[in-house]
Design a protein that fits this description.
By secondary structure, the protein is mainly alpha-helical. The chain is built from six helices and two strands.
Length: 142
């Protein structure tokens, strides 16, 4: 698992990490937890929630770069994110940092917004993912 964590960190450094990479990683984490044998020592539902919030943020950037409408539906958020207050807090931080504008929430709880600066937004999202991965790697060394 340490190799997977290092691979994800390498992709962050190369700016090639995608939301699909993160979603695949969180699915492996969830499956290992269901089996009662977590593949990472410091994995918790809270860590998974955070990583998935960041993956959705990254997916929003990918869709904006591809000039496509969001394929996300409110149900997609509900299936993965257990604590909408974490999503709201992250979107608030993005807005306070002036990385996004025109924020609105639809009835299903999905955040809709415009990204102001793609590169700064990507860096911010990557930085948040990196922090969670670093925390996991720290515990793997113990």
């Amino acid at each position: 698992m340490k190799q997977t964590l290092e691979t994800l960190k390498g992709k962050i450094a190369e700016k090639t990490l995608t939301s699909d990479d993160i979603f695949a990683f969180t699915e492996r984490l969830k499956e290992s937890m269901r089996e009662g044998a977590p593949i990472v020592k410091n994995v918790s539902p809270a860590n998974i929630d955070l990583i998935e919030i960041y993956a959705f943020a990254l997916q929003k950037l990918e869709m904006a770069n591809a000039d496509r409408d969001s394929g996300l539906r409110a149900a997609d958020w509900r299936e993965s994110i257990n604590d909408f207050s974490k999503l709201k807090a992250f979107v608030d931080k993005l807005q306070e940092s002036e990385l996004i504008k025109s924020v609105s929430w639809n009835v299903g709880g999905m955040a809709i917004y415009d990204i102001v600066n793609n590169e700064a937004y990507r860096t911010y999202v990557y930085w948040n993912i990196q922090a969670v991965l670093d925390n996991m790697i720290l515990f793997e060394k113990l």
